[in-house]
Design brief:
heterodimer; A: elongated; B: two-stranded antiparallel sheet
């Protein structure tokens, strides 16, 4: 069980790294472009918002399956 | 507004007093005074972490950054904060595990113990001092310019700074770390409420979010994309900022301490996720305030824009709440930083609890005075000065990570890379070395240098072991 959790945690670390890398590509920050907008938010703002939300989501999953979960409960 | 300010200000001071009195115990141990007895729950945890992290820099620096440099500021801070909350879980788990076997009095002392040498502790302390004092000074400076712009002619700028430092010293000396954590919780709540009240007013004055962004597009469309009108948000700048901010829980001692003193890993987990949501909420509102400023006050100075957007364009009660919120923001972050330096100093001291406590209190006083003096000579670019502080302390990341992650005694040779990185960064900040080499920013190159150096040290250690 713990090994399985460890593997999933490593996958989540990889996901966080990939998210970090994607942020600095034209997919999220195209130079001088603010279209298409989403809910009137300019492009970089809404893509950035999604990336941030994904980071929080990855963190939340990580807290649920962390191999050390429950180790230092007191 | 003055009546509201008196009412809300008095309530805030009363809350601070209550926090100090509640935290004060006559016969408390040194750990209770400096580290709140390692017993901070998740709700107070997230508020104290957020308050220590966000502060006047988010209240004043971020709206101004959105106003002058555009939406790339979201990538600069919010995305980086997203990465940082993930690091809190990963790094937090490892450092807490290590602390169980070594104990914890402060990061400097922790490093000294693990490396079995005084140099890493001294290096960490010097770096923290060099970059936290200006960071604390930024807060004091920020609030001083804001108050003097608001109450023009009432008091000179430096006297506002003295009032802030005075209040901060009194309640930190009385209540210790626990009082700071409680005041952070008050400040975190006030900050979130106030910033959204102001953000909503800014949207409402244009009718809708759509109208606000349409107006920005008409005035200065370059604000809606990277690199922004001043070309600040280049890929290199954003990557270097991302690394500096993500590393904050490991390299800024006031935040590392908060990761360690939280009650247990479950509380830390809840704290990290809540912090991510808190960051999104708070930074999102500064987007609206900044965009509002871009249309209404495109050419105003920082102080004039902030005084107008945060105070004079608001309803009286919101303006008064903003004043209190700003004051609280500045107070808690400055306090967190000054107290962190005290904790670091204490972690390297030896002697009886009484002597160490007395010397730490003297240290706190001296650090506060130095920050006060610095605040009179700082520039107004709050967000960029905060980033410099993050970059500076991030040079210590290899030293901290190797100490926390290696099972045996970490190799001292890693110190060479962190120390040389720090010196190069300082020389470039003082313009003795160029800030760019070829087409590359020096901070960006320094991160490559630190990563390569640390990898080299690890490979070398393994080779020696295998021989």
């Amino acid at each position: 069980m713990k090994t399985q959790r460890k593997s999933i945690f490593w996958i989540l670390i990889l996901a966080a790294l990939i998210l970090g890398c994607i942020t600095f590509t034209p997919l999220v920050i195209p130079y001088g472009k603010h279209e298409p907008a989403l809910f009137h938010f300019p492009y970089t703002l809404w893509t950035g918002l999604i990336v941030t939300l994904l980071f929080v989501l990855v963190t939340w999953i990580a807290t649920c399956i962390h191999p050390g979960k429950g180790e230092d409960e007191s | 507004m003055i009546t509201w300010l008196i009412i809300l200000g008095s309530l805030f001071i009363l809350a601070l007093l209550a926090a100090s009195v509640k935290s004060y115990k006559k016969k408390r141990t040194l750990d209770e005074y400096m580290l709140a007895g390692f017993n901070i729950g998740p709700i107070i945890g997230v508020l104290t972490f957020a308050a220590a992290l966000f502060s006047a820099f988010i209240f004043m620096g971020m709206p101004d950054m959105f106003r002058t440099d555009g939406v790339g500021a979201w990538i600069f801070l919010a995305v980086s904060d997203g990465g940082m909350v993930f690091l809190i879980i990963w790094f937090g788990y490892h450092i807490r595990k290590k602390v169980k076997t070594t104990g914890f009095r402060g990061v400097s002392g922790f490093l000294t113990g693990l490396y079995e040498h005084k140099l890493p502790g001294y290096l960490f302390f010097i770096t923290a001092f060099l970059f936290l004092v200006p960071y604390a000074a930024i807060q004091i400076r920020g609030i001083s310019i804001f108050f003097s712009a608001t109450f023009e002619g009432a008091l000179p700028e430096w006297s506002w700074a003295i009032i802030i430092v005075g209040i901060m010293l009194v309640y930190a000396e009385i209540g210790g770390f626990r009082a700071i954590v409680f005041s952070d919780a008050i400040q975190g709540t006030v900050l979130l409420v106030v910033i959204w009240l102001i953000g909503i007013t800014c949207i409402c004055s244009f009718g809708s979010v759509e109208s606000l962004f349409t107006a920005v597009e008409r005035v200065k469309p370059s604000l809606l994309s990277v690199p922004g009108p001043n070309g600040l948000f280049t890929v290199q700048f954003l990557i270097a900022s991302f690394i500096a901010i993500v590393l904050i829980p490991a390299t800024q001692p006031q935040l590392t301490t908060r990761v360690v003193v939280i009650r247990n890993f479950r509380s830390l987990s809840r704290m990290a996720v809540s912090l991510g949501i808190f960051a999104i909420l708070i930074i999102l509102s500064t987007v609206f305030i900044g965009m509002y400023g871009a249309v209404m006050y495109p050419d105003a100075t920082t102080a004039d824009f902030l005084a107008s957007a945060l105070l004079f364009d608001q309803k009286e009660i919101v303006g008064a709440l903003a004043m209190v919120g700003l004051f609280a923001a500045c107070l808690s972050t400055t306090n967190a930083q000054i107290f962190a330096l005290g904790t670091e100093l204490r972690s390297m001291m030896k002697g009886s609890d009484r002597t160490v406590l007395r010397n730490t209190r003297i240290g706190l006083f001296i650090f506060a005075i130095i920050a006060l003096v610095f605040s009179t000579v700082m520039s107004d670019e709050l967000a960029l000065l905060a980033r410099t502080s993050f970059t500076g302390t991030s040079m210590m990341a290899p030293v901290v990570f190797l100490a926390v992650l290696t099972k045996q005694k970490p190799p001292l040779s890693v110190l060479f890379f962190s120390a040389s990185g720090l010196i190069i960064l300082l020389l470039s900040l003082f313009h003795i070395l160029p800030q760019e080499i070829g087409r590359f920013r020096i901070d960006f190159l320094l991160y490559l240098y630190l990563a390569a150096g640390t990898a080299g040290v690890l490979v070398w250690k393994r080779l020696i072991k295998n021989r």
